[in-house]
Amino acid sequence: MFYHLKTNPDFNGKQVGLVFSNSATRSELRSAFKRLPGGYDKEIISPIDVTKKHYDIIICDEAHRLRRNKNLGMYITNFRSGNTRLGLDDTHDELDWLVKNSDCLVLLYDRKQIACPSDIPYDVFHQRLDISHCGIRPVELQDQMRIRAGNDYVPYIHAVLNQKQLSALNFKNYEFKIFCSFSDMIETLDMKEKSVGLCRLCGGYAWKWIAKDSPDRPDISIDGVDVWWNRQTGGWLRNPNAKQEMGSIYSLPGLDLNYAAVVIGPDLYYDTESREVRVNRKHFFDNKVKRSVADDELKNYILNTYAVLLTRGILGTYVYVCDDALREYLGKFIPIVR
Question: Which residue intervals define the domain Schlafen group 3-like DNA/RNA helicase in the entry (predicted)?
């Protein structure tokens, strides 16, 4: 859509921007558009950029990641400056910026990818648009054309994680399996990287970022295999030295892999007495997400995070589960390699 608007003569002279909140996503898209003539990469922008000039048309992908004033961490300074620039107070948010500084707005929103308290909830999001834009026209995208597993795969992942799936499904032409050995999964992923490329390890925020202060110390050690959190955001997918690094919800939203190897860490476990998937707060280290958040809300954020990671792989998804009981539960729905 963005490329069409930029190249169609009917839209000559129009100010068109493609907005992504996530810096890693912007970096990858800018790199792709730099290969094309026209300088379109300069119009792949952040929400704060929208506060600096008026646009005729804004397309915002991953609009569920637009931020409100809750658990913003260090971003609060930029957030306040954006509101000030538009004459707004801090009860307003990044959605307000896009509404105020554009004539036509296209938003792609998925409530099932809400992953932290700063994300604007669906009811607030929808209500705001009803009030601000009487001409809102919702369009539900029912077909997904990324993952070769087909249209049933994404809802299946959400149903399994939320314990609503009653029976297992098989997905033809798609590699989907649980590894009991972390080192075996890494070895298999390495082989896929050599054959098809764009294969990465990713996981939930279930380990401290040790290497931030001690770069030589691994952040994660599983089955004697040392792993570091991704050392960069922009360009991480294109870095051939990132094979022993683990991506997160911050490095992969809106991006695709050929094969994703997902580690479900000790932040989730299966309670065999209550037969429930539960959260272990002590093993969840994203303070921006868990600060002042109740257990049920935190569980929803964490499950959505793993659902995002489990739906990055175009050709296949490999899974390693740290909690034995959770592995057995998930094994009812995902084939286990023993």
Answer: 42-323
67 with 94: CB under 8 angstroms? Answer: yes
> In this structure, what DSSP letter does residue 6 have?
H
How many C-beta neighbours within 10 Å does residue 215 have? 9
How many residues does this entry show for the chain? 338
pLDDT in tens, 277-295: 999 999 999 999 999 999 9
> 269: helix, coil or strand?
strand
The two structure tokens encoding residue 217: 């110390």
How do the domains of the chain map onto residue ranges?
A: 2-132, 153-337
> How far is Cα 268 from Cα 285, in angstroms, rounded to an integer?
12
**Domain 153-337, CATH among 3.40.50, 2.40.50, 2.30.30, 2.60.120:** 3.40.50
Residue 247 CA to residue 228 CA, distance in Å, equals: 9
Helix and strand numbers (H, E) in the chain are 11, 14
- Amino acid identity, position 327: R
Q: Cβ(111)–Cβ(104) under 8 Å?
A: no
SS3 247: strand
Comparing 2-132 with 153-337, is the CATH topology the same? yes
Domain 2-132 falls under CATH 3.40.50: yes
Q: Global pTM?
A: 0.92
Q: Could you tell me if 157 and 310 are in contact, meaning their C-beta atoms sit under 8 angstroms apart? A: yes
H or E segment and range at residue 225: strand 225-229
329 vs 309: CA distance, rounded Å:
19
Residue carrying the six token digits 């740290």: 322
The pLDDT tens digits of the residues spanning 52-111 come to 999 999 999 999 999 999 999 999 999 999 999 999 999 999 999 999 999 999 999 999
The alpha carbon torsion through 279, 204, 256, 259 (nearest 10 deg) reads: -100
C-alpha 211/C-alpha 223 separation (Å) is 19
Answer yes or no: are the C-beta atoms of 233 and 27 closer than 8 Å: yes
Output DSSP code: residue 119: B
User: 329 Cβ partners below 8 Å, 6+ apart?
Assistant: 270, 277
